[in-house]
From TrEMBL:
Lineage, uppermost ranks: Eukaryota, Fungi, Dikarya, Basidiomycota, Agaricomycotina
One Gene Ontology biological process: acetate biosynthetic process
UniProt cross-references to SUPFAM superfamilies, sorted A to Z: ALDH-like (SSF53720)
Protein name per the record: Aldehyde dehydrogenase (NAD(P)(+)) ald5
Gene: ALD5_3
Domain (Aldehyde dehydrogenase): residue spans on this chain: 29-487
Gene Ontology MF terms: aldehyde dehydrogenase [NAD(P)+] activity
Amino acid sequence: MSTLAATQISLPNGKTYAQPTGLFINNEFVAGSDAKIDTIDPYTGKVICAMEAASAADIDVAVAAAEKAKRGWRDTLPAQRAALLNKMADLIERDADIIAAIDSTDNGKAFTMARHVDLVGAISCFRFYAGYADKIHGQTMELGRDMHGYTKREPYGVCGQIIPWNFPFLMWAWKVAPALATGNVIVLKSAEQTPLSCAYGASLIKEAGFPPGVANFVTGLGKTTGVAIATHMKIRKVAFTGSTLVGRQIMKMAAESNLKKVSLELGGKSPHIIFADADFDKAVETVANGIYFNQGQVCVAGSRAFVEAPIYDKFLEALKARTAQVKSGNPFDPTTYHGPQVSAIQCERINALIEGGVKAGAKVVAGGGKHELGGLFISPTVFSDVTGTSPLQNEIFGPVLVISPFKTIEEVVAIANDTEYGLASGLHTSSIDTALRMADELEAGTVWINHYGGASPQLPFGGYKQSGIGRENGDAVIGEYTQIKTVSIARNNNKK
Ligand code: ADP
């Protein structure tokens, strides 16, 4: 296969850069054999460029390249793996403005958010797992004088990774860094809506000096490329971030192919609880950010707010006023907080849920869907009086909050946990007793107390119930990317 040249792209901020458009296999950008995919700027509606897409046969080629690189990478000195990951962090830092601009154009998110949240997170992720590469260890077991036992943590080999479009480069980093640190080789598929930063990151992998075949990156549709990864017989682990619906299919495909290990980071309908003794202004600000950040396209969005009855009416008024201040506009305007949704399909889906909610009797407190800017913008929206069967009880993945009052701690625990999701939760209180009790009671992988959102490489992240299987970040993810080998030795004790 011949190497494809990059395409020169002019970004809305006036910068020009070389965008690779090929599949990255064996450290080369090559053509794919599936139909090319146009990637669209959701703010302008214009095609940015066409990306090569991988067919099942291309995935076979990528997996073969990874298989070939597998032993060499596994046996590379851990300190050398660490050095390469640190080099990646340096290169991402060098190009952070470009990568943030790429994600902003491809996804519609505000450039300032992309630069200060996504890129800062991606850099710290690479640095954190560079630090982990030479700190992976097993245990020794006390078996008496006649036996010696120990365990090793070994990589799975070829890992398939499938990422979503809401934080394109950050999710890329969360998948790539720990997998490579632990000595795995990878075939990663970007989301078809936002393939650009993945391919750009691939060019940095080559520049950093990773050996060919260690990290392979492809663009493609879920139903073709994604399925080829999930069903592949030589892929030993699949890590997926996306919807619960697709997560369930991934698990089924893994089971029906080769029982590959599965880790899933899925949807949520996270509760955000305000007690009457909380710092009121801070809570209003945090609830607004908890739902409106990234246009609500966040798996941990605090999409269900529960406010203690004595402050409910006042809270509703304050939130309404705060919602009116959300600054929408061009993602490259430094004052913009709120950009367009990622795609027309997502926009239609959210609008349909909003309309369904209104029909089911919910009251619009703020917003209501239609946005004065038109296009793919949806106005930040708050609903009250949402009943149990309302369409608004679904994960909306948009800037839509459902709010209701509560009277007792027992009541709010019951309603907060009354969901099949369990990704995250948040609460505001000045009582340490309330905080600790709630931290015990909430059925969620994360409990944020007196703040909401934000991830750190140190903190494990993942879901309870149908929000996922396994954890990303922290040392927890090391367990997701390594399998335990037990070694047991009979000792001779110098007997002849
Ligand atoms: P969303 O509905 O928010 O777009 P998805 O869960 O559909 O989220 O997509 C997340 C990722 O999963 C994307 O990379 C997408 O291409 C991929 N995907 C979608 N459907 C499948 C599938 N059937 N098998 C494997 N991957 C898929």
